[in-house]
Design a protein that fits this description.
Largest sheet of chain B: 4 strands, antiparallel
Number of strands of chain B: 4
Distance between the termini of chain B: 22 Å
Strand content of chain A: 15-25%
Oligomer: heterodimer
Number of domains of chain B: 1
Order of helices and strands of chain B: EHEEHEH
Shape of chain B: globular
Distance between the termini of chain A: 51 Å
Structural class of chain A: alpha/beta
Order of helices and strands of chain A: HEHHEHHEHEEHEEHHEEHHEHHEHEEEHE
CATH architecture of one domain in chain A: Alpha-Beta Barrel
CATH superfamily of chain B: ACT domain
């Protein structure tokens, strides 16, 4: 039987170490909503989302109350809208009507974000894909809860450099369209290489076409719990360090598994995956950077950071995999700058640069995330940053992503406030040497040799 | 049977168990086991209860006990036992 010390340990994690379930995300297929009539399509989408997700938020709250574990976000992901809207949308403005419909549906059911305003263009773009991408700035400026993502490359297909070039411009336009709001639109827009079909985390969540009609995916968190556990073994050898992370990740993930199976049962929706991620928040004590520093780094970004992050990421997976029946999504440590107080401090004190973050993305779950850069950085430079990150993902057969915010009217040393979970971003310096000529080349970068496995 | 763990954490004082037990009795919740100890200088009490026949649902139970705790300057939580089993038992 459970004893008082075990109960105490769990409750300490919840009350003092920020243990929570970061998100319950309901994936909804919109493929059966497709119609060539735009009004009919929008009506179908609104009806399906509000019907399936009607009880999502309420059920999440009931689970929170019953188990005493906070579930921070309840969210929805949908089939990439470029696929859903292709038959009905003839202009970017047509796609914007779908974004508005998604926003209304998300608001109606009470979720705090809806992802899937997306296009999958890792090889080439269809006409619909391009229309959707071109509609992103207006769509994000005219909605509150919709998140957009574009998959620009994969290990199997290579990198679609035409789309990489286009996204540099689209990110700048999105910043311009939302400049009165801290260029917030860019915080809801992410580009990927090797995007997973079952990611529950925003801004990159979408419900892939390999998925069923409706599914529950859960993202766990708990950087504060890992940090606390490491404090208790301060200075000990790597074996102890790794074992401690693994055991802690196991415990954290088990809670996610419980919440996922309860949500699935109560909603009558199939359980998909647990995403084993250490997702920080701006709250004090909920930082991935703090874990790295507890391991023995003076400041995140100093030599040793990549190794420490690689170790952390691997042990989180090793501990988490056994705790859950199905693991998927991004699964790893997130390093979003604006959402992690330790990362923000490391940028401010000059220790953490974009180049070091890029190295870190080789060994952690995602990529260059929530970076603010000067608003006057050229679109081609943003495309260059994206291309580098896509190359890391393509060659290393992992997911990588870029979510940068060119902050109009701000420069290095300034700060932009997004508020809430999106946090505060110090504007970071960018290498301004031009890659214009490289980015201007048409076509694709072919798939790497090790993708030919058949 | 539906096991719910009720925990009380804070500074010890007269009448804590009485208040919680009265509430549980009023709402048809059976106490299966009680244990208490001092952890890090704080009074910790754990009750294992059966809420299968309770006249309140889990959300109401949690909110009511929190309110009792707030009045006494204590943290009182109720949680389905399963969260602890999941975390501490393979």
């Amino acid at each position: 039987m459970i004893n008082i010390y075990e109960v105490h340990e769990t409750n300490e994690m919840i009350m003092h170490e920020n243990l929570d379930v970061r998100t319950i995300t309901m994936g909804i297929s919109l493929l059966d909503c497709i119609d060539s009539d735009l009004d009919k399509l929008n009506a179908n989408i609104y009806e399906k989302i509000t019907r399936l997700a009607r009880d999502l938020v309420k059920t999440g709250r009931e689970i929170e109350d019953e188990f005493g574990i906070p579930i921070v976000n309840k969210r929805i992901s949908v089939t990439p809208v470029a696929l859903v809207g292709g038959a009905a949308c003839k202009t970017p403005e047509d796609f914007v009507t779908i974004a508005k419909t998604l926003d209304r549906a998300a608001e109606e059911v009470g979720v705090n974000f809806l992802g899937g305003y997306s296009a999958l263009v890792s090889k080439h773009m269809t006409a619909a894909d391009e229309l959707l991408i071109r509609s992103i700035p207006e769509a994000l400026a005219n909605t509150k809860l919709v998140c957009a993502s574009v998959n620009l490359g994969s290990t199997k297909t290579g990198i679609n450099m035409d789309a990489v070039r286009l996204m540099g411009t689209i990110i700048k336009q999105t910043a311009e369209y939302t400049k009165d709001d801290g260029c917030l639109g860019c915080a809801k827009l992410v580009v990927f290489c090797n995007a997973p079909d079952d990611n529950p985390f925003m801004a990159g969540a979408f419900h892939g076409v390999t998925e069923g009609d409706c599914v529950i995916n859960v993202g766990v968190s708990g950087p504060g719990v890992v940090k606390h556990a490491l404090e208790s073994i301060h200075g000990q050898d790597f074996e102890t360090l790794c074992e401690t992370i693994k055991k802690t990740a196991f415990k954290v993930t088990r809670v996610g598994q419980l919440v996922a199976s309860e949500a699935s049962k109560r909603l009558g929706v199939k359980f998909g995956i647990i995403d084993l991620s250490l997702a920080p928040t701006p709250a004090v004590g909920d930082s991935v950077s703090d874990i790295l520093e507890e391991m023995g780094l003076e400041t995140t970004g100093c030599p040793g950071t990549t190794a420490a992050l690689a170790l952390l990421n691997d042990q989180v997976k090793k501990g988490g995999v056994m705790a859950s029946s199905y693991v998927g999504g991004l699964s790893g440590a997130f390093i979003p700058v604006s959402e992690d107080q330790g990362m923000i401090n490391a940028v401010r004190n000059g220790s953490l640069t974009i180049e070091k973050l890029e190295a870190m993305t080789c060994v952690c779950s995602v990529g260059l995330d929530m970076l603010a850069i000067p608003g006057d950085v050229a679109a081609s430079t943003i495309s260059g940053i994206i291309a580098d990150e896509m190359a890391i993902g393509m060659v290393n057969q992992k997911t990588t992503a870029v979510r940068v915010i060119p902050v109009i009217g701000k420069d290095v040393g300034d700060t932009v406030e997004f508020g809430g979970l999106l946090g505060t971003a110090p504007v970071m310096p960018v290498n301004r040497k031009s890659c214009e000529e490289f980015i201007s080349r048409k076509g694709c970068i072919p798939a790497p040799i090790h993708s030919f496995k058949n | 049977m539906k096991k719910t763990i009720i925990t009380v954490v804070g500074h010890d004082k007269v009448g804590i168990i009485a208040k919680v037990c009265t509430y549980l009795s009023d709402h048809n919740i059976n106490i299966l086991d009680i244990s208490q100890t001092i952890i890090d200088g704080f009074f910790n009490m754990m009750m294992i209860t059966d809420t299968a026949q309770a006249t309140v649902n889990a959300s109401e139970l949690s909110a009511d006990l929190k309110a009792i705790g707030d009045n006494l300057g204590l943290i009182i939580r109720s949680q389905n036992e399963e969260i602890f089993n999941m975390m501490h038992r393979v």
